[in-house]
Structures are given as C-alpha cells and as structure tokens.
Amino acid sequence: MARARLLLAAALLAASIAAPLNAEPGPEPDGTTPTDPRDFSGVWMNDNTLDERLRREGRTRLAPGESPGPRRAVPMLTPAYEQVRAERLAARAHLAEGAEPCAWPGMPQIMTYPYPLEILHTPGRITLVFEAESQVRRIFLDRAEHLPFDELDPSYNGDSIGHWDGDVLVVDTVGFHEHTQIPGGYPHSADMRIVERIRYIDGDTIEVAMTITDPAAMVEPFAQTIIYSQRPDWRIREYSCLENNRDAPDASGQRVGGVVPQ
Amino acid sequence: MERIDVNSFKVLIPAAVALAAVAVPVLAHHSFAMFDNEREVWLEGRVAHFQWTNPHTFIQLNVPGARGQTVEWSLEGGSPNILSRNNWRRTSLMPGEAVRILLHPLRSGQPGGTFLEVHKANGTVLYYHG
C-alpha cells in the first residue's frame, strides 16, 4: 500500500506539472473580452468532456467507482416517441456489452462530442469543421429562408441559416432525418428544429445556447447550453470510427474484433 | 490497488460484477460499462502491439504467468486524437517494450481492460487522461 500511495502521489505531482496552461480556463466568464465579438474563427473544445474536466482539476483519472459526471439533462418524450425509444432499445438488446457500430453523430449530438471543432468565416457563411467523423456544418448568412421542401433533403446536420442579433449569432436548423438521436438515446422526429444562440462569454470562451423544438417527439422544448474554450495550439486531426472498429457487432451481436485476442 | 495473478484472475474478478456502473455518455463511441471502474489493477508485461487507431487505441500486452505461460491482454484506451493531446504519440510504445500498466479490468474476467497509466522502463508515465 505504501508503494501504491507513493505512486499515486507521484502521479498527482506529474499531472500538476504536465497540465498545459491553456487548459485551465478557470471560472468563466473571466472578465476578458474578444477582439471582435463577431469573429469565432479558430479551434474550440467542448469544456464539459471528461478529459477537459480532469485536466482543469489537475487529475489524470477518476477515483475508483467515481461517476464520470452528473447525468445530463434529457428531453421529455411524447408517448409516441417513448415507444420509438423503447423499440430502439429493444433492437439493441442482442448486442454484447460494448458492441457498437459506427454512425455519424449528426445534430445535435455532434455539438457535444468529446472532440474539437474549427470555425471558419468566409463571405456569407460560417462553417463548423468537426474533428469527429470529419463532419461539416455550413451556416448560411446570405440566405434568410430555408431551402424549399423539394431541395431540403433530410440529412444528419440539417439546413442551417444564421443572422446576427447584436453580437449573438442566431442559427436556425431544420431538415433532418430520424437516424440521429439526442444524446442518451432519445429519438426525435424529422420535424425537429434547432435554434442556437452563439456568443462570446469572455475573450476565449463561447457559449452555444441551444433550444430543440419537436412537438411530435417532445412534450416541451429541450434546452441545453454548451461551453467551448479556444484552443489556439490545437489542430483538427482525423477521426473515423470505421478505421479499426473492433467493437462493431457481428451478426450475433458480438464484438467483431473480439474483446480479447482470438 | 492490487496486482493480478494471471493464473487466478478469473476467480478474482467475478466478486466485483455486482457493482454496476452508471453509464454516462462522455465517450464518443461505446459504453465503458464492461470495465470494472471500481477496481484498479497493475499488470507487468511486454508490448506485443500498439494499435494507434480510431475509435480506440489498444495495447496488446504479453503478460508472463506464474506457470511459465504467456497471456495476451487487450487493453483499450482513448482515441489517438484524445491521447495525442495527452502527450502520447504513435511511437509511444514499441513492440517488445517492458511496461507496467494500471488498468480497470473487464468485468467478464477475460484478459482485457482499459488502461489508465502506462509506466515505461525509463520512468516515463503516460496517462489516458492527460
């Protein structure tokens, strides 16, 4: 035990030395202001991931049995979509624990994935390039209306139009199919509408206040706020779940790559 | 913390199966509920192969048993994207390298787990979570 305690102390010390300075945003907002409150250019990371939280706390792992975090808020479904949720859960029942196929996260899940995104400003458009699955969201500022129905093909990330309300970028997104879910395995309908209000809350932190409205699937609008910190020294890497997914289920629901060597 | 005897780990692990973890969606890919996050164990062995691939990395570790046999363990970790931001590189572990690894074992008792810390022979320590 003495050795274990020594190792733990050494680990904690090493962690406190290794923690990068820019990963400690501290209390936010911190009173600083952005150079241009309408310029979100750069690489941003969701503050509320396990790694970001542990880094802020100067830790390298959770304590044994410690929960990775509070349960996230989830939408209240209508009875019809409670049934959809139950059917989807039943369809997964044959999967071995840990078996998981790969799928694009889509909206809104892509916004809370534990990977960074890069925001690009070009004339008439703001583009979000996500590390996860190399996904892209294009927010059209040069178009006040959504695509007409015959062009609004149902998609993972929908059709996004945006405008400025003061220094708040307001993004309205519709045009989804039902392949994606609200994090936690909650379904939505194809008529889901997502409104995001994106703004700086200090010099290097932005907030996305998101409201999801979907009367067919949810008894009331579902709101969540996501905080992202700027990461000027990060680059967007590639992440494809299909690269080496040992966890993909085979026909019998077992992990195709095996839990352990075959 | 405890040290796993590879000849008896199938006996040791089932006692912890009842301690089910609450799955919280902090990961992009699969749930880590199959790992026993109540238990931290150390393994010593040599790296057979380091899979620096998405969606998860794997350290294939050859662990000598008390009766002379070798057991190959699969130790799963975060994506290269996450680990690279925690100071890992594709070259961090080389085949044949001796390492000590702190991990949460599989609840099933099979020779697998999720690594937390990797201690190299030269004293370097690599952490899953930064």
The biggest chain-chain interface is: A-B, 53 and 50 residues
Give the SSE order of chain B as H and E letters: EHEEEHEEE
Main pleated sheet of chain B: 5 strands, mixed, barrel
Tell me, rounded to a whole number, the average pLDDT of chain B. Answer: 82
Number of helices of chain B: 2
Chain-wise SSE layout:
The complex is a heterodimer of chains A (262) and B (130).
Chain A: H1 2-18, E1 42-46, H2 50-56, H3 79-91, E2 117-122, E3 125-130, E4 136-140, E5 159-165, E6 168-174, E7 193-202, E8 205-213, E9 222-230
Parallel strand pairs in A: 4-5
Antiparallel strand pairs in A: 1-2, 1-9, 2-3, 3-4, 5-6, 6-7, 7-8, 8-9
Chain B: E1 2-3, H1 9-12, E2 41-51, E3 57-64, E4 70-77, H2 80-84, E5 98-105, E6 112-120, E7 125-127
Parallel strand pairs in B: 1-2, 4-6
Antiparallel strand pairs in B: 2-3, 2-5, 3-4, 5-6, 6-7
Provide a short characterization of the protein structure:
Chain A is α+β, with helices and mostly antiparallel strands.
Task: Tell me what you see in this structure.
The complex is a heterodimer of chains A (262) and B (130). Chain A has 3 helices and 9 strands. Chain A is α+β, with helices and mostly antiparallel strands and 262 residues long. A 9-stranded mixed barrel of chain A has the order 1-2-3-4-5-6-7-8-9. In chain A, a hairpin with a 2-residue loop joins strand 5 and strand 6. The longest helix of chain A has 17 residues, at 2-18. Helix content of chain B is 7%, strand content 38%. Chain B has 2 helices and 7 strands; from the N terminus they run βαβββαβββ. Chain B has helices at 9-12, 80-84, and strands at residues 2-3, 41-51, 57-64, 70-77, 98-105, 112-120, 125-127. Chain B has a 5-stranded mixed β-barrel with strand order 2-3-4-6-5. In chain B, strand 6 (112-120) and strand 7 (125-127) form a beta hairpin. The longest helix of chain B has 5 residues, at 80-84. At the A-B interface, helix 1 and helix 2 of A face strand 4, helix 2 and strand 6 of B.
